[in-house]
Amino acid sequence: MALPNLHPMLNVAVKAARAAGSLINRAALDVEAVRINQKQINDFVTEVDQAAEKVIIETLMAAYPGHGILAEESGTEFGAKDSEYVWIIDPLDGTTNFIHGFPFYCVSIALAVQGKIEQAVVYDPTRNDLFTATKGRGAYMNERRIRVSKRVRLNECLISTGFPFRPGDNFKNYLGMMSDLMPKLAGIRRPGAAALDLAYVAAGFTDGFFETGLHPWDMAAGSLLITEAGGLVGNFTGEADFLEQKECMAANPRVYGQLVTVLGKYSKFASAGEKATLRQSAAADTADVAEPEATDAPAAASDSQDAPF
Hints:
Helix content: 25-40%
Strand content: 15-25%
Radius of gyration: 22 Å
Number of strands: 14
Largest sheet: 7 strands, mixed
Structural class: alpha+beta
Strand order of the largest sheet: 3-4-5-6-7-8-9
Distance between the termini: 61 Å
């Protein structure tokens, strides 16, 4: 098939992503030698993140000095401060995986124009997989057009997620989501790099994705890949304005609607009634767990005669 005619700005982003990827691959050959700092508990940054971000910013600024920058490690320190063009960069999404030599991490670069994502690159340096999208022109993986999966039944779907890992994260809420979803699905995966998770939904490798606590640089490029591949992306209640909300869900349209039905009540944007129902359900579950300890004590004594397992 003919190669897609890349937009000039996307070409520059691809060049930047590949430069960062080769730097990451070189560092991966001796990951034990990489210096690591902890931003907060379980949140790591390495000299590789910083070097990759530097080469990306230098490449973009050389081509487009009037553009703005929003990057994970340096924030808005570089680039123009008032441009309607803003590059949103995660130089190494999946740093914890990288530190351990677990080969699931990527470079993510998106361009927002007046707040709307118009160009996207997600590059997986371990597999040399390049995902690209330009608004209105479709999504591609290694220059082949990609589409979200066609599955419509949740019990056939493989869904990816990210587990909470920071102090203050709502672990109980997540356990509720998992217990609601798991029996309805073919499987849940937690690969550990949200940008690549979104790219995999766009390519149809997984059927959906959900996670809380994400930042714009985790989601920006992946979100355009999803929509250009025919999928939907938004918060847990299904609303499309999600980039700043730290809540992301994506899937093909039929599965997306079913995920909203299951996960919507866990959204911070759920109605007061839904939140009250969820609290009552959690309280009932706690009571059910506590009750047998009091009422079944005599039975437990007689059961003690049974053979141990």
